[in-house]
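[Q] Does anyone have a clean C-alpha cell version of this?
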Amino acid sequence: MTTGRIDVGEIRMAYELTGPEGAPVACLNHCFGSDLHYWDRHLDAFEGLRVLRYDTRGHARSDAPPGPYRLEMLAADVAGLQDALGIDRVHFCGVSLGGQIAQTFALAYPERIESLILVNTTCEYGDEQVALWRERARQGVAEGIEPLHATLMARWFTDEAVARQPPGYRYMAEAIRRFPPQSFAAAVEAMCHLHTTPRLSRIAAPTLVIGTPEDPGAPREVTEKMARLIPNAELEWLTPARHLASLEHPERFNALVRTFLAKQV
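[A] Here you go.
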C-alpha cells in the first residue's frame, strides 16, 4: 500500500494506492463532503484491481485553496494525480459530485478511460436546484454546517436508515460535520456549473449507470437520460434508497460493480 500526500499542480492531494502492482487501475472518487474512506465498504467490488482513491480538492486531507471550484479543475486534479503516480488509464468510478467529475474527466481525457461507473449522479441541474444549493452554501458559510446537517442526511438516506443509522450513515454523518464551510461553498459552485448533457454521446467507454428512482439529487428521468445518451451504457437501480444508495446497500452495490468490471478486465 502507498499512501500520503503528493504535489499536483498548485495543491497537495491525499491519496491511497492499494492492490497488486501491474493490475488494471480503478480510480474512485467520493461524494460531496466526504473523503477517500467513502469507499471502505466497497473495496470488495474492486478485488484484483489496483485501487486509487483520493480526497478531492477542498476535502479532508487534500489542500483547500479558496474557491470557487470548477468541474474541469477537479478533473484536471485527477489527471495530475495519475501523472504523478505513473498511471495512464483507469476504470473510473464516481458517486454524486464524484460522478460529475468522472463525466468531466471522461470527456476531457477519453484516452485515459477504460470504463466508467456513474453512481447516483446527474448530468444537469435545473434553476431551482442551483438556487437551492447556492442557498445552502450561503447558509453554511454564515452559520456553519450543523444547521444543514439534518436536511442533508434526510436527502441522502431513507427514513429507515436515518432511524437505524447503519455504518455508512454514521460515516457520512461525521464526514459532513468535518467539511469546512468555505470548501462546501467552493464545491457547490463546481456543481452549479454542471451541464454535460449535450456531450454525453461523446463518451465511448463502457459505462455502468447506477441510480435510485427516489433520488432527490439525481431524479429518475435524468438518470435514464444519462444511460440513454451514453452510447455504451447499461443502467441498474438500487432501491429503496435516496442519494447515497451504495452506503445503504453496500453488498448489492458491490455485486453490481463486480459483474460490470468482470466484463471489462
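[Q] Thanks! Anything notable?
[A] The first strand starts at residue 2 and ends at 8.
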